[in-house]
Every structure is written in C-alpha cells, then in structure tokens.
Design goal:
Layout lengths: L1 E4 L6 E9 L2 E8 L5 E7 L4 H19 L5
Length: 70
Amino acid sequence: MSASDDGGGNGEVYFEFTAIGRTVKVSAIDAVTGVEVSVVAPATAARADLQRLALQKLKARLAARGPKGE
C-alpha cells in the first residue's frame, strides 16, 4: 500500500494494487472519511494511469456525498 497527497488539499489518499491474473485491482481510500473505491484494469496498464483513474473516481464519490458526507 502506498500513500499520496491528492494535490487538492483534501488530505491523504491511500492506494492499494492487487494483481488478479492478467488484471490489477486498484483501490483508493480517503484517509479522513474512509471512503473506498476501486477500478480493475489490465495488468499492463501504467501504474500512474491506474492511480489517476482511481483518484478521479474517489473524488467523484466524495463530491456525490456532499460537503457534510451525506
């Protein structure tokens, strides 16, 4: 598991990469709220692209929850 700041000042995001056959599952977890999302892609995809995709999905999920986590 690796940690990275999302650059938006919203706190820390943890990324977990799990190889599943010829695919990889990338989970992104917001450290403050504990909200987790995941994406599955070919194992040959670039790690940075997968991390960026998971981060975008996490940001969308957090935005959908609203400012108070509703």
